[in-house]
Amino acid sequence: MKNNILFILAILFLTVLAACQGDNSNASSSEENGGSSEGEYTLRVGITQNDQNAEFKGIEQFKEGVEERTNGDITVETYHSDQLASIPDLIEQASTGTNVGTITDAGQIGDIKNEFYILQSPYMFEDYEEIDKFLESDPYHEWVEEFKDNGLQILSFNFKLGERNLATNTKIETPEDLEGNVIRTNGSQIVNATVSGMGGSPSGMPWTEAYPGLEQGVIDGVEAHNLAIYESSLYEVIDHIAKTNHYQLVSGMVVSADWFSNLPEEYQDILIEEAQLAGDTASEIATEQSQEYEQAMKEEGVEFIEVDREKFKERAEDAFSEIGLEDVKAEIDEVLDNE
């Protein structure tokens, strides 16, 4: 009798052990796809700017909307100030299937698919209305579909963050004044070509190194928009901002295409819709903040200089041929003319 009881207990133990191993296997598989053992999904979104920036307020709204509409099945974690990783690192991680996302400008994803450079090319668009026309065009939607081949899903491209100008220690009024000045860029080919074409010497470096770079004289200036300049306190280490407005900054929310494709279709639609709404909100905030920050920097002693943009535009034209964008530019010019 005793042996029978021991035999039955052994069978029960093996049955429970097998069931536990099966549960662990399922949990591991779920976690590898950005989910948990309960079947939920997690997306981690990181940006370079701080928690006061319009981008961060946009992704906070995105988090709230997605979690509410999916009843918590999708959890969105938000990170600012490169706490999660730098934008290039996040893009690379997302392309390999990791459950991460970021807000990136066109220059950085243009390094992956050159056509996107056109959204950050010098003096390509007159204003945001023209950019909106392009974002509704067939060529743009074709590029988004093709971009999935690189492992990346674009959720929206409507984070309009303001005009990019030259913030420097040297007073810049003409392209000739810019010659010899080392200007910080994000390192993307199109931005480097733009700065070089206008007369400066581009130096790619992380944004977090811009302040000490200016303070120590490693660089002479940055090309940036008011939000980035003010919120990083660069007004403390620059004296002038030349209003070149060489392009209007527009950025997009990008996530892993593999992670995205494993979501239920309903959830995919929710992410796209909430990303678009987040971009709209960030854009409204950015417009208000840009004006406030310009006035605040003037009060701090920064001189804003109205320049002859046509002179800078003429010099920057070389960027299109340097990057090989002549055909793309012609295609988009045709789209804008036909709208």
Automatic annotation (TrEMBL):
Keywords: Signal. Residues 1-18 form the signal peptide. CDD domains: PBP2_TRAP_TM0322_like. InterPro entries: DctP_fam, TRAP_DctP_sf. It comes from the Bacteria. One of its GO terms (biological process) is transmembrane transport. Pfam families: DctP. This is TRAP-type C4-dicarboxylate transport system, substrate-binding protein. It comes from Alteribacillus bidgolensis.
